[in-house]
TrEMBL record:
Protein name as catalogued: Helicase
Keyword tags: ATP-binding, DNA damage, DNA repair, DNA-binding, Helicase, Hydrolase, Isomerase, Nucleotide-binding
Lineage: Archaea, Methanobacteriati, Methanobacteriota, Stenosarchaea group, Halobacteria
Cross-referenced Gene3D superfamilies: P-loop containing nucleotide triphosphate hydrolases
One MF term in the entry's GO annotations: ATP hydrolysis activity
Record-annotated Helicase ATP-binding domain positions: 40-218
Length: 955
């Protein structure tokens, strides 16, 4: 540290009073960290500030020391709460309480925690005798604002600290909190706002999100300072694709996997062994469980931590890691948000971290001896993964971080907070409520007409009354019940508790989709890194009872959660890498020489970059155009068309939906799609050629993109699912549903011209799509800046999408018990057999009762279609004399099914009885040569999994 920095540090602590400085000396805080040096003086002066720094650099003390000082130096203690410390996770509440208790005892300050698990006795006590500092969550603040005694306690608030504010800024929870803070301001008047954030690419936006917008009653009330610690200079990354060794070949047998995956496991195990405490971050809970099971097989001292484990299991593994009883911890984003697990020496990221901010936040957890460098290793699996990780690592060092995607003008949040405002006071003028909401940054551009439409929708749902003559919003009979049922903006989704029958303890949860799609008695899955066999499923109690087993393979649970989207900037840099390497390969340069150029710029080793470059070299050998940052290459074969486009998840999703809708419209066919950051894969009828996609890209008017997308979304499962969630937050589901289920199509029709529908469309656009960048892309195609090319055949890069991005540790083979369970399930499924020769005979029966070669008992024909048990409309379509387009399509499908049954008998009936397996996929499954009958069912299982993963893309 330089002399000037040391002097600044001394000045930072001299901004605090005697009591706090004495406590600092007692605690051993002799020299402040960089965030403390720079932020304590303005915070001690009462200014609003956003402090941006890695986890472990003393951010909590940076914020709280000036707050403690302000409270401790008061001449007279007020009745109420002086400061709120708001965290997005209950687990952080527990951590903060433990970290702040010492300061409270030393400075004679009362510090307490309040959240959903706080007992009624403790809540009453806090209302009667409020603490000086209360640690809480955004949702609990919502509830506190409506209590008479607590509102009195909140009137003395002078400081608000929002921890992990970057996380809240990009969610509806955060938009809700900003209005909650304005409601709090109505009670307490202006207060100091302090935000603690990980590195983010839009500090000004996040700071405005925190402090709100005018009008202000005090000078500087909405002003802020940004204190940002340069993270890029204090992190070091290594990106590695492990080389397969003879040891990995031997290890593969023990792990029941292939040698490449064994090399990943070995590399991570070696990194854990080389350090005292290592966090191993993965991108999904599935991977956490699968990797954990591999280490358990090897007897490695490595635990698993993610949000679907029980609270007790999470706390236990956190405490064991902190105590040094566990060498490594495999974790998901559950460990990103600063939960205290003690000192971390090294961070491993398994697979590309997908975003710059995520890599910085995760690796930033390591190190932190004063001004020490945080070190992390990214273990990659294929060329896409490697190039992406290299781009992210380079951008992280240069500080090129993604912006926070704030939810501007979210109408279900608005609905929720209008009810909150009415709950606070019983009634309020509509004008006053509108102006209050507009002070929150995400609603600063809200129009009065939108506000009134939302209020009317709430009135229609009987959640409040609108008195237009008096311009009043008033409580109704449904206000109270709605508000307390909707304190959170996190959508309600069904989860099943998993209970170990032997110990009678809950071990975790599974989401409904996994239970419906895969969970059957007898099936095996992994949770907490251990193998479990399902004994029974209680749907009424939403409970799965399991027993532990020893087995090397099993299905990994599928939890709710979206894939982390790769931003456009990262995908474009991968495209730029191809731009640099491609011409060199085309001119005859060797892989080694091209790789050498990249070694100088990116943090990797020769083997890793050479492995990745070999894909580009193979592509160059074909003579086909290379997809780059400014070239889109379309290729296809049979029923598959691939649009190679380096524009990231959201632009590719937007482009894919547009192409799927417009090509489908032109050809009168259904077009399915699957997206990754570098290519869009389409499933098309045989008559559709790649050139059809080029024509749409060239001819689509950029000005019409938003309208076309909204039309394309109308019948999608994505919009219907989102609409149901939004409708629940408006209290509209109850109105339409009553005591019965109300179908998604009818709900869509009922809500189409309401704010509920508008918000569902806005959310899908915000969450999944990127219309502005897609419009800009189409304009660049129009101007010739982006080249469009068609490959004559499938290319190495186009085909690479089939293997990239997969869950590398999910077992390829199911064990014998799972195969038997699938066989039995399909045998018990019902099908309709329908004679297409006479068209008179139909029979509904179980698959097990179908003969080896089905034949019509009336006419003797073997041309028998095998249909799903609910496919009566297909039978009607075949028999119809005057068919419409849809009936023609059904008829063709029935004849394809009959041809397959005529050729392959009962085997075809079995294949088509599986979920998501139509005649086309059944034919592919049947056509494969295989020695083992079990492999036939393994292929069926693979197709069912593929259908479950991609079902949302088939509109």
């Amino acid at each position: 540290m330089s002399e000037s920095e040391a002097a600044t540090g001394i000045r930072a602590f001299t901004a605090l009073g005697d009591a706090v400085r004495e406590a600092l000396s007692e605690r051993g805080f002799t020299t402040p960290t960089e965030p403390q040096r720079r932020a304590i003086p303005p915070l001690a002066a009462g200014k609003n500030a956003l402090v941006i720094a890695p986890t472990g650099t003393g951010k909590t003390e940076t914020a709280m020391l000036p707050v403690f000082n302000s409270i401790a130096e008061r001449d007279e203690k007020p009745f109420g709460i002086s400061a709120l410390y708001i965290t997005p996770l209950r687990a952080l509440n527990r951590d903060m309480r433990e970290r702040l208790d010492w300061w409270g005892e030393t400075l004679d300050l009362d510090i307490q925690v309040r959240h959903g698990d706080t007992t009624q006795y403790q809540r009453s006590k806090q209302a009667d005798d409020p603490p000086d500092v209360l640690v809480t969550t955004p949702e609990t603040l919502q509830a506190m604002l409506t209590g008479k005694k607590l509102r009195k306690a909140l009137a003395d608030i002078e400081h608000i600290v929002v921890d992990e504010v970057h996380e809240l800024a990009s969610s509806k929870r955060g938009a809700q909190l900003t209005v909650g803070l304005e409601r709090l301001r109505e009670v307490a008047g202006p207060f100091q706002r302090i935000g603690l954030s990980a590195t983010v690419g839009s500090p000004e936006e996040v700071a405005k999100f925190l402090v709100g917008v005018g009008p202000s009653t005090e000078p500087g009330d909405r002003d802020f300072e940004i204190v940002e610690v340069d993270v890029g200079s204090k992190v070091e990354f290594t990106v590695t694709h492990p080389e397969v060794t003879p040891e990995d070949e031997r290890l593969a047998g023990k792990l029941a996997t292939d040698a490449e995956i064994a090399s990943h496991v070995r590399t991570i195990r070696e990194l854990v062994a080389d350090n005292e405490s290592t966090l191993v971050f993965v991108n999904t809970r599935q991977t956490a469980e699968a990797l954990g099971s591999r280490f358990k097989t090897l007897g490695a001292n490595i635990g698993v931590h993610h949000g679907s484990l029980s609270k007790e299991a999470r706390i236990d593994i956190e405490d064991r890691f902190k105590a040094g009883d566990v060498d490594g911890l495999i974790c998901t984003s559950s460990m990103e948000l600063g939960i205290d697990v003690g000192r971390v020496d090294h961070v491993v990221q398994y697979g590309s971290p997908r975003e710059v901010a995520r890599l910085l936040q995760r690796v930033g957890r390591a190190g932190h001896r004063r001004d020490a460098v945080s070190r992390g290793t990214v273990v990659t699996s294929d060329p896409d993964d490697t190039f992406e990780a290299l781009a992210i690592a380079r951008r992280a060092v240069d500080g090129d971080v993604e912006s926070a995607e704030i939810h501007h003008g979210s109408l279900d949040v608005l609905a929720n907070q209008i009810v909150g405002v009415v709950m606070d006071t019983g009634e309020m003028s509509a004008r006053g409520a509108f102006e209050l909401v507009r002070r929150a940054y995400p609603f600063r551009e809200l129009e009065e007409e939108q506000f009134r439409q939302v209020a009317q929708e709430l009135s229609s749902n009987r959640l409040l009354w609108v008195d237009e003559e008096k311009d009043l919003l008033e409580k109704s009979g449904g206000t109270w019940q709605y508000f307390y049922a909707n304190l959170s903006m996190i959508p309600d989704e069904e989860t099943y508790e998993v209970h170990d029958m032997s110990s009678r303890k809950q071990i975790g949860t599974l989401d409904e989709r996994f239970v419906v799609n895969f969970a059957q008695p007898g099936e095996v899955f992994i949770q907490r890194g251990e193998m479990w066999r399902i004994n029974d499923i209680d749907d009424e109690e939403t409970r799965v009872n399991v027993a532990p087993i020893e087995n090397p393979a099993g299905e990994v649970p599928s939890w709710t959660g979206r894939e982390i989207p790769v931003p456009m900037g990262v995908a474009q840099e991968v495209g730029e890498m191809r731009n640099v390497a491609g011409p060199q390969f085309e001119s005859g340069a060797s892989v080694k020489s091209v790789a050498g150029d990249f070694l100088a710029r990116y943090p990797t080793d020769e083997h890793t970059i050479t492995e990745a470059m070999e894909l580009l070299d193979r592509h160059a050998e074909t003579g086909e155009p290379l997809p780059t940052a400014d070239r889109i290459v379309v290729e296809g074969q049979g029923r598959q068309v691939v649009v190679n486009a380096c524009f990231g998840h959201q632009v590719n999703e937007t482009l894919g939906r547009l192409l799927s809708a417009l090509v489908g419209q032109r050809t009168g066919s259904s077009v399915g799609m699957e997206v990754n950051p570098y290519r869009i894969e389409f499933e098309v009828p045989p008559k559709v050629r790649p050139s059809a996609f080029v024509e749409v890209l060239e001819s689509t008017d950029p000005d019409h993109v938003e309208g076309l997308l909204e039309l394309a979304l109308k019948n999608s499962d994505t919009l219907k699912f989102t609409l149901a969630q939004v409708a629940a937050k408006f209290g509209a589901l109850k109105r339409y549903q009553g005591n019965n289920r109300f179908g998604a199509d009818r709900l869509l029709a009922a809500l189409e011209d309401t704010p509920v529908y508008d918000e569902a469309v806005r959310e899908v656009f915000h969450r999944d799509l990127d219309v502005p960048n897609t419009v800009a892309l189409l304009r660049r195609i129009e101007s010739g800046e982006i080249e469009l090319a068609v490959a004559r055949e499938r290319t190495p890069i186009g085909v690479a999408g089939r293997s990239s991005g997969r869950e590398f540790l999910v077992p390829e083979n199911a064990d014998a018990s799972v195969i038997e369970a699938i066989r039995e399930r399909i045998r018990d499924d019902r099908v309709i057999l329908f004679c297409l020769h006479c068209t008179d005979w139909t029979r509904k029966t179980k698959v097990r009762r179908v003969s080896d070669q089905p034949a019509c008992p009336d006419c003797g024909s073997t041309r028998i279609a095998s249909l799903n048990p609910w496919a009566d409309e297909v039978v009607k379509a075949v028999r119809s004399k005057n068919k419409d387009d849809e009936q023609e399509k059904m008829t063709r499908r029935a004849y394809k099914s009959a041809n397959l049954v005529q050729s392959h008998g009962k085997r075809a009936v079995v294949a088509m009885a599986a979920r998501g397996v139509g005649p086309h996929n059944a034919a592919r499954i049947i056509a494969k040569l295989r020695e083992d009958e079990d492999d036939f069912y393994r292929d069926i299982l693979t197709q069912e999994r593929q259908y479950a993963r991609t079902q949302s893309f088939w509109d």
